[in-house]
Amino acid sequence: MASAAEEASAPVRKAAAAKKVTVAPKKAVAGVKGAAPARAVVHPPGDESRTALVRRARRINRELAEVYPYAHPELDFTNPFQLVVATVLSAQTTDLRVNQTTPALFARYPTPEDLAAANPEEVEEILRPCGFFRAKTKSVIGLSKALVEDFGGEVPGRLEDLVKLPGVGRKTAFVVLGNAFGRPGITVDTHFQRLVRRWRWTGETDPDKIEAAVGALFPKSDWTDLSHHVIWHGRRICHARKPACGACPVAPLCPAYGEGETDPEKAKKLLKYEKGGFPGQRLNPPQAYLDAGGKPAPPLGAG
């Protein structure tokens, strides 16, 4: 017969057992060729300390840097003007679609002065494949006029100036600052928001609050590359509806492991191949590896 002390301790033992968490199997990282497998660790509990969170977040970024060493903006551009326009056009469409559209746009309107003076109907016809083409036409012509009238035809290199341009919010501004001017910034797009919440870096839902919360976990110098790593991972592996958990290189560090397919072979079929090559490939120099039909083509030098 159990003593009173033993009976009193039983709920404690049950509570402790309830807190047991699942460890992602090491084979979960096998689906990404070339990735350095993360060491198996216990998924963080809900009471993870601030120090532990910082360490885990930075380790995830280091692992992703190994998988995507050449992560970069997937919009084609040759100058800050082209980048800001392309980023505005990328809303609610794919970067691939924007890259198929902007050559004709920039060939006809190569400078802010040209686009500011453009016939809206002609611009709409060029931008029609991007979706929401009327609103986007209004934005790119409007921002071009603002560049000419307020900034001498040059894209400003300050956040407070960029967000004054039509169609430009903080997300677009940080893309431009980080990739055209080398000034650190966090790009909080839909992929970034989804992944940092899955990883429990923050529970915030407002993009500005997410930016602040995640920024506090990393040195400022890491912000731009961090954004690329997270966005690339969200596009290729950690999808919104069906993440490829069994092929994820950071599965052992992810509190949401198991939300998606955990079988490695099935998970590999969920991987998406986009600009920049296949997940886990170390590509140099970075460039598109898609054929004319938008399907993955062999990397340069292959076969």
Automatic annotation (TrEMBL):
Catalyzed reaction equations: 2'-deoxyribonucleotide-(2'-deoxyribose 5'-phosphate)-2'-deoxyribonucleotide-DNA = a 3'-end 2'-deoxyribonucleotide-(2,3-dehydro-2,3-deoxyribose 5'-phosphate)-DNA + a 5'-end 5'-phospho-2'-deoxyribonucleoside-DNA + H(+)
Annotated InterPro entries: DNA_glycosylase, Endonuclease-III-like_CS2, Endonuclease3_FeS-loop_motif, Endouclease-III_FeS-bd_BS, HhH-GPD_domain, HhH_base_excis_C, HhH_motif, Nth
Keyword Cell membrane attributed: no
Known EC number: 4.2.99.18
The keyword Iron-sulfur appears for this protein: yes
SUPFAM superfamilies: DNA-glycosylase
Region ranges (Disordered): 276-303
Cofactor: [4Fe-4S] cluster
Pfam families: EndIII_4Fe-2S, HHH, HhH-GPD
Cofactor descriptive note: Binds 1 [4Fe-4S] cluster.
Domain HhH-GPD intervals: 89-236
Top-rank lineage group of the source organism: Bacteria
The family this protein is said to belong to: Belongs to the Nth/MutY family.
The protein's name in its UniProt record: Endonuclease III
